[in-house]
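Q: Protein A?
A:
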Amino acid sequence: MGTNPIESYSVCKDAVQYCRERRGPALIHAHVTRPYSHSLSDDEKLYKSADEREEEARRDPISKFALFLVREGILDQKQIESLEAGIDTEVREAADQALAAEEPSVESIQLNVYSPDNRPEIHRVRSRAQIARRAKNHGRNGRRHALRRNGPRRAHHHLR
């Protein structure tokens, strides 16, 4: 998973649904190739063989998806080229805008980190005393509860 956009979309859609159902967090481990250098100052020929570069180019999700769109009759080659040109323009304009923008304030560091309806400060926080009391009241099951709620490291700390 990772170089196939259709498969990646399906996996991401399932992960989003899982999280929205409040079943817990989701981790997607995608194996994506980078068939080109990081920057103009990075010459990948110095650390990748020609065969390795060729294999990565074959697995490139962008070119693979463009071929899929043409093969399926969704877009033609001219539309792909127009789309790529539009994307290049949009990225250049966004980069120019970012470089011209004011530096953000230190106070803004936590803006847009959490979903507005899932802010950490609204969740009930248990004190060490509450966790220890609960563990004592529930014996061995209390430790299991503390482990499940706080993870092994924090549970051990709270139940000493």
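Q: Protein B?
A:
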Amino acid sequence: MIQPLIVGRGSAGRALRHALAIYPEAVAPPRWLDRDAPLPAPQDPGTALLVLANPHALHAPRLLEAATRGYRYAICEKPAAVDLAQASQLEGLPLHTWICHGYRLLWGPRSSSARGMLARLATSSRWRVGTGRPARRLAGRR
């Protein structure tokens, strides 16, 4: 049974809790963690699921912490990183991470490797990471 740990008690955290509750036969009731509390090591990395719905700037640091603590799986409210420096830190992260719009209740996470995410953010996406504003064109690109 999946053992979720939700970081973030706001509307996104509540929406993700609601989405996980759709599958009571597969998902245990979630535990909650305050955003400033240290991340506990998972009891069983194969069933532990970290759910990040805390402030955007804290997503990448928590994903990095989760990888060092032994988590294998995470759901992260978008965005996973607020700038390219944070996105670069996520490259090669040994953590299966789904990025989603949890607050919409139309929950459908998209699996993404950090390398693929970084490539989409930096090249195919025409938006700056985390700003919601159009990106400037890269030199030599049309």
